[in-house]
Structures are given as C-alpha cells and as structure tokens.
Design goal:
By secondary structure, the chain is an alpha+beta fold. It contains twelve helices and seven strands.
C-alpha cells in the first residue's frame, strides 16, 4: 500500500474517532439529564454508551472489523434500552438521536474506502433503523430520531467519500509531478553526459584531428602516433559506456603518475611536452579534491594549455596553483600574442564548454585576462569539499 493511502486511512479513522466519541459523550450527557430515562435503565444505558465509546476507539485506531461490528451492535442495544423505556421523554429521544447521528454514523467515514465498506454501512444503518422501528412499535415517537439518524449516516458517508476521492486525486497529481520530475532528471542527466562526452572529445580526439589536418606542424610522428593511440583507447571506453572514473575523491599531485588516481598534472604536462609546449609548474604540490572537481580542474587546465599551444605562438606556459580554506585556484599564464576577450566569437564553444562549462558543473568559475601583444592569463577556480 502506498504511503499516501495509509495516511488517507489514518485521517479517515481519526475523523471517525472524533465524531464517534463526541456522539457518545453527547448521548451520555443527554442520559444524565434528570428524568430523561428510568433510573432502572440508566446504569445499563450508561454502561452501553461507555462500551460503545471503547469499541469506537478500537475500531478507529486499528481499523478492525470486529470492533466496528461490536460498536454497531452496542449502539443497537443502547437504542433498544432507551427506546423501549415507557417513560421516554424528549431528552431520551435526543440521546437516541446523538447515538444514531454521531456516534455510530461516524464509523461510515473510514468504511467507505474498504471493498466491503458500503455493504457494512448499509447493514449497520438498517440494524439501527430496525431498533428504532421496535422503539416506535412500543409507542415512542422516534420520527426526529429517524431523521437525525439517516441524516447523520448520509452526511458521514458523503464526507468519507469526498475525502477519499480528494486524496486519491491529490495522489494522482503527485504521481504526475513525480513522473515529470523523473523525466526531467533523466533528460538533464543525459544532456550533462552528452556535454561531458563532447568536452572529452573536443579536448582529445578533435585536437589530434586538428593536428593531423595541419600535417602535424611542430609535432613529431612519434608523439602524434602515441596521442592517436590514447585517443583510440578513450573512444573505445566511451563507446562501451564505461565511466571515465569510479572514485569519489583523489589526490592532486603534479608528480604523481599512479593510474589509480586518474589524470594528474604530470599526465597533462607530458602530453603537451610531446606536442611541443613546455609547462612550468609553480605553487602547491599536493591537494586533496573530490574526483569530479579534480577532473574538471585538469580538463579545463588542459584546454587552456591547448589554446596556448595553438594560438599564443610560444613554446612555454606557466601554471601556478594556490589554495585557501575554501578554494583551489590554477592560473595559466603565457607571454604570447594575446587577444581581445570581447572579440571572441560566441559560436566558438571550446572555451565556453571545455573550460567555463566544465568548472561551472562543479561550482567553479573561470576568468580571462588578456590584451593583444601582452599575453594571456586564465584563472581557474574550484571549491574545496
């Protein structure tokens, strides 16, 4: 059973408990009016009212059918005890109305959600009406009691049906919202994965193809062959659906070459050394970062160095890493041609996706400082855990 169905049943039982116990208390108060019922019948009627209240409490707490049947039977017995009293006066009739309209009628509220509930409601109401008919046969005027009883049962049944259907409709809306949220989440995850794959391809395979298209100017045959082999392994990994990493955190060390740590600065430096760009490392030598933040930082760093290699017209770049309590910063600097950042075509997605987008995905950011003829500095920032 769904949780909302359990909460619906609990709400209906709680309403029935409040209504039933209120009716029992009203009946007991009416019976306590002097002269409302013969003294010889008062003790029995009071005991039946208390017993009915206890059974209503059990029926509306646990939802047990036997307790519900017992409460109905007790109500019928109570009506007979009161209705067959030859000295019945209007106060006694009011007590009967309280029993029929509120106490037992309230049990119709939770019964409407059960498969056998409607049949049980009809049988119980019929039994009470039979008891009222027996009282009428003995000479008691029970017209007001019949009207009150019928009205109470009908009102309670309608209330239960309305609440049950309202909650079911709310559950359907919640399910629709949940399905829409799940579809949106899957679409977002799919788009994020596609963007991540596109960044990886842009930073590796497309860079190698660009070199080949320019006949590998400035790069030897051996490094090109090695780079192409690395790209082929990456493509195979992506094609097979294997994750690029399976860890949650990693040590960022420029000298490390342990494959278990994934990409490190040393692997980035070696790659660009093969392609003709020497990278000088400055600053922090050992950082512990979450795996996704490390991958984003190194990926963005690699793309910045690729831009230096392709556009700056220099063979040396500097990388300076610093950190504080909250943030790790990597600054890529070259003394090359420089450019005007505002003049970059927005349609070029290399920097926007492989640097800015990659860092943004882990809560980081990138800033560019450059002008024509004065070199370029890119500040990369990622948050610490």
């Amino acid at each position: 059973m769904r949780r909302i169905d359990k909460e619906r049943d609990r709400l209906l039982r709680r309403l029935a408990r409040v209504g039933g116990l209120t009716g029992a208390a009203s009946a007991l108060a009416c019976l306590a009016v002097p002269g409302a019922i013969a003294p010889s019948r008062f003790a029995v009627a009071s005991a039946l009212v208390v017993g009915m209240a206890v059974l209503i409490g059990l029926a509306t707490t646990r939802g047990a059918v036997p307790a519900t049947m017992g409460a109905m039977a007790t109500a019928v017995a109570l009506l007979l005890v009161i209705g067959l009293d030859p000295s019945l006066d209007p106060a006694g009739a009011t007590a009967m109305a309280a029993v029929g309209a509120l106490a037992t009628g309230a049990l119709a509220i939770p019964l409407v959600v059960r498969p056998t509930g409607p049949a049980l409601i009809v049988a119980s109401a019929a039994a009470i009406l039979v008891a009222l008919g027996a009282s009428a046969a003995s000479g008691a005027d029970v017209r007001l009691v019949v009207i009150a009883t019928a009205a109470g049962w009908i009102a309670c049944a309608i209330l239960g049906i309305w609440l049950a259907r309202a909650i079911d409709r709310a559950a359907e809306r919640i399910d629709e919202v949940g399905r829409a949220h799940e579809a949106e989440r899957l679409a977002s995850e799919s788009e994020a994965q596609q963007r991540q794959d596109a960044r990886v391809l842009h930073d590796t395979v497309l860079a190698t193809l660009s070199l080949l298209a320019h006949s590998g100017v400035g790069v030897g045959t051996g490094p090109l062959r090695q780079q192409a082999g690395d790209d082929a392994r990456l493509l195979k990994q992506l094609r097979l659906g294997a994750p690029l990493d399976n860890g949650s955190s990693a040590i960022f060390s420029p000298e490390s070459s342990d494959d278990g740590l994934g990409a490190t600065f040393e692997s980035v430096r070696q790659r660009f050394a093969r392609l003709g760009l020497d990278v000088n490392w400055h600053g922090a030598n050992h950082l512990v970062l979450p795996r996704d933040a490390l991958d984003a930082l190194l990926g963005a760093l690699g793309e910045c160095l690729e831009n230096v290699r392709r556009h700056a017209g220099v063979s040396v770049a500097d990388v300076t890493v610093t950190d504080d309590e909250h943030t790790v910063r990597a600054m890529v600097t070259d003394q090359g041609a420089g450019f005007e950042p505002a003049a970059v075509d927005p349609a070029r997605l290399g920097f926007a996706e492989s640097v800015v987008g990659r860092l943004h995905a882990v809560g980081g950011r990138a800033r560019v400082f450059s002008s024509p003829g004065s070199g370029t500095t890119v500040m990369l920032e990622v948050p610490k855990p």
